[in-house]
Specification:
By secondary structure, the protein is mainly alpha-helical. Helix content is 82%, strand content 8%. Strands 1-2 form a two-stranded antiparallel sheet. A hairpin with a 2-residue loop joins β1 and β2.
Amino acid sequence: MSSQQQQQQKLQDANAEFNKIQAEMSSIVEARQTLGAQLSENETVQQEFKDLKPENVVYKLVGPALVKQDQAEAKSNVDTRIEFIKGEIQRVEEQLKSIEARAEKKRNEVVELNNALVQQQQQQQGEAASS
């Protein structure tokens, strides 16, 4: 295998790894969006609970049935869910920062390999022209 072929193989490998990282990043961004929607939905429910009077009845959907639930318990469940979702958002955002750094590093590697390959090809063309 010639030096140029080795360079091309390295470039292809790095490019494949970069594409894999991009797909992983896309998945993480999607997870973040889902968590954002869940947080918004639960905060809306939390806001609705603030408008309830003590005599209002709260129901919880369990499978296909609505089951009566204690207001305090329902509020507590929503508060707990909000805290959990916020924790998950923080975890996903840290993952996103990490993978963005990996993607940037791999992108730089691809650019360097590509530049080296172009330079090598130009050098070979220059040598062939001068012969």
